[in-house]
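Hey,

Quick one before I head out. I ran the complex with adenosine-3'-5'-diphosphate overnight. Inputs first:
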Amino acid sequence: SIEEEEELTKQCKELLLSLPRERGWRTPYIYLFQGFWCQPTEIQAIISFQKHFQAKDSDVVVATIPKSGTTWMKALAFAIANRHRFASSKNHPLLTSNPHDLVPFFEYKVYENNQVPDLSKLPEPRFFGTHIPYPSLSNSIKNSNCKIIYISRNPFDTIVSTWHYLNKIKPESAPELTLEEAIEMFCKGSVGFGPFWNHLLGYWKESLERPNKVLFLKYEDLKADINSNVKKVATFLDCTFTVEEERGGAIEDIIKLCSFEKMKELEVNKSGKSIKNFENKNLFRKGEIGDWANYFSPEMVQKLSKVMEEKLGGSGLSF
Ligand code: A3P
């Protein structure tokens, strides 16, 4: 994290001094920036993104709060929208690249290290990923006809997944986070790109007001019925499967290509690195619903349930 801090511009370092901060999960501190919590290098990249990114109507953005199924949804969206370009499943890019390389995050890959890349020549549709909350997306995203696919996950599994992941990727010198501490921070709202409930509600509200703009999905629904969700995504992206495609097994092929079992075993996902030089293998842990029950005490369940009810009650959103 010391190395990361050194990448910051003087301007960004000054900004940090004016922001509220809390203990971080992976870095010493996270900062409250535009109403959400994030790390210093993310803030710098987000500022650059907000200033420079020009959306095209054909863009597809996969948005999530971390550990909600980002990798899975990036793979699915990419495979669904590009199915005519990469018809042969033998040389599909997803077999040799991690989804985070094919669908790069604005706040990591695209705008990291204060770079301003020329994105205008990328093949269309362009695919991007982001953890940035809806209100802080660039105006050109909000005002264009580009599409946003949001995937959410129940907060219990999201915490357990985050806790495992961050303890794996943290610098060796940083202390291990206990689950109790993780839940405490989550309930206070100070988790990357959180508070969790604000993140969900921002995209949820927009999906109700502009259903053609934001598709709001749940990890649990995808696990329960992936077939109809793949169709839903295709229709949302204006590329509905034809009857012939359905008969030919195009949907099943995509489901298999993007499945946890298939992706986890690919060489690129066993030995490669994508986001911020972190190992891809840590992105594939269990991929199940309800693993939280193996870790939460009854007190922990009560504490988190109460906060979720307070924050999401009446929104129409539940898990
Ligand atoms: P677990 O830690 O519960 O196993 P993200 O991609 O947003 O970082 O989310 C990571 C979670 O999604 C992890 O959950 C991971 O195992 C799971 N995951 C990764 N790829 C998946 C896939 N293809 N299908 C289902 N779940 C997947």
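The mean pLDDT is 94.

Talk tomorrow,
K.
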